[in-house]
Amino acid sequence: MGRRRLSREFVIQFLYLTEMNEGEIQNQLQLFWENNPAAEDVQLFTEVILKDVFDHKEQIDVRLEKYSDNWTLSRMTVIDRNLLRMAASEILYSKTVPPKVAIDEAVEIAKRFGSEDSAHFINGILDRVLKEMNSDTPQASLN
Hints:
By secondary structure, this protein is mostly helical. 74% of the residues lie in helices and 0% in strands. It has a single domain (3-136), classed as N-utilizing Substance Protein B Homolog, Chain A (Orthogonal Bundle).
């Protein structure tokens, strides 16, 4: 397994943990790393994604709700909801991860941790997020 994939799996595990437990995020993160030792670069990439998710959670959730036909985030499984948040944060805010890679990674992790329908569900919503983002990007002038 690649190091970035491992980081993304840690992101999902940590987001799941924070939804199930109250408490200060930094304290939970410190305890998480004590229980899940990882190389420094894996920890760093994990924490970059987590920072984007937590910093932009409201904006991410608004977009996800917009494209989750007949679903609210609260009705989704914890895994699906957090896979969507993770990938949407990479699509919208990462300068180092191509959006298609973020989607592919989320789909692959969904196959491992989600339900039978998770990969298709996640792919559909993230594709819509990407299309909206691309339509918001100004096109270069041909003049």
